[in-house]
């Protein structure tokens, strides 16, 4: 890593460059600390699954929210008091669902801590402008992923309503907790990752790899490609999630195209 003096320049005499062994030792220390943070966060997440967390509903209740919001005639009821619950077909299913939710929550809860360890390892090798750029991209990326995850959560109910309503005259759904968790996870990951695509376009343009002139006349092709992505990779393979994902991607891509246009104009004026 490059160490810098107070003026931000590299000083070979005083920078104290680490050896390869030193880098590996430092990396191991950061990884161990990150794992400890994730484990502690997972313990909190495991507890949060069945308990309120600072006036926030239990994770189990948040998880089953979209499913339990469906009309009662679309889901089987095996409880004695009429309360909406997910199905567990094996004794170990209940523990595994709580464990997976707790682990996922632990990764999210502890993310500021383990990301700070990653940053502490990388930052000494970056110049000031590089640090600003990296932090800006990380902040925008996080916001986009969160926006995608929230969109997926609210779209999920509509998607389930469509899927479970197809054969309502002859069938009723009893969704296994683990299967339902996989559906929710896939929705969140797909929407969250898809929302990162416009950011990638902006970054490529920022580094001069992708010019606005190369894409300004191909919007229709981009829209068609976006629709295909929404149709092929939508977890539920149903119309609602496809349309929402496609619309959101087109909207975000248009914002990234505007950035590309303005950035190219700025570079042209600077020449």
Description:
The chain is mostly helical and 271 residues long. Helices cover 68% and strands 0% of the residues. The protein has nine helices and no strands. It has helices at 20-48, 59-68, 91-109, 111-122, 128-165, 177-194, 197-206, 219-233, 239-270. Helix 1 packs antiparallel against helix 4, helix 5 packs across helix 6 and helix 8 packs antiparallel against helix 9 (239-270). It starts with 19 loop residues before the first helix and ends with a helix. 20% of the residues are buried.
Write the H/E string, N to C.
HHHHHHHHH
Structural class: mainly alpha
Beta-strand content: under 5%
Mean pLDDT: 84
Helix count equals 9
Q: In terms of per-residue confidence, which ranges show pLDDT below 50 for 5 or more consecutive residues?
A: 1-15
Most strands sheet? none
- Rg, rounded, reads 24 Å
Q: How many beta-strand elements?
A: 0
Shape: flat
> How much helicity do the residues have?
55-70%
What is the end-to-end distance?
33 Å
């Amino acid at each position: 890593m490059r160490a810098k003096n107070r003026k931000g320049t590299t000083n070979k005499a005083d920078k104290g460059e680490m050896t390869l062994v030193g880098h590996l030792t430092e990396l191991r220390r950061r990884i161990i600390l990150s794992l400890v943070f994730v484990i502690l966060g997972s313990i909190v997440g495991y507890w949060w699954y069945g308990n309120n967390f600072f006036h926030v509903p239990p994770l189990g209740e948040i998880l089953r929210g979209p499913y339990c919001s469906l009309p009662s005639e679309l889901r089987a009821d095996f409880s004695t008091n009429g309360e909406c619950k997910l199905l567990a077909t094996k004794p170990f299913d209940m523990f595994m669902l709580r464990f997976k939710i707790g682990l996922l929550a632990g990764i999210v809860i502890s993310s500021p801590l383990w990301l700070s360890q990653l940053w502490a390892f990388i930052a000494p090798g970056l110049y000031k402008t590089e640090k600003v750029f990296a932090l800006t991209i990380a902040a925008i990326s996080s916001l986009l992923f969160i926006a995608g995850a929230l969109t997926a959560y609210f779209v999920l109910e509509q998607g389930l309503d469509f899927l479970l309503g197809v054969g309502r005259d002859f069938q009723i759904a009893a969704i296994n907790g683990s299967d339902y968790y996989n559906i929710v996870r896939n929705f969140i990951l797909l929407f969250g990752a898809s929302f990162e695509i416009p950011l990638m376009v902006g970054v490529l343009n920022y580094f001069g790899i992708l010019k606005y002139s190369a894409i300004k006349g191909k919007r229709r092709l981009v829209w068609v490609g976006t629709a295909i992505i929404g149709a092929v990779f939508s977890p539920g393979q149903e119309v609602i999630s496809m349309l929402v994902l496609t619309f959101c991607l087109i909207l975000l891509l248009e914002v990234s195209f505007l950035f590309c246009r303005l950035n190219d104009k700025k570079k042209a004026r600077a020449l």
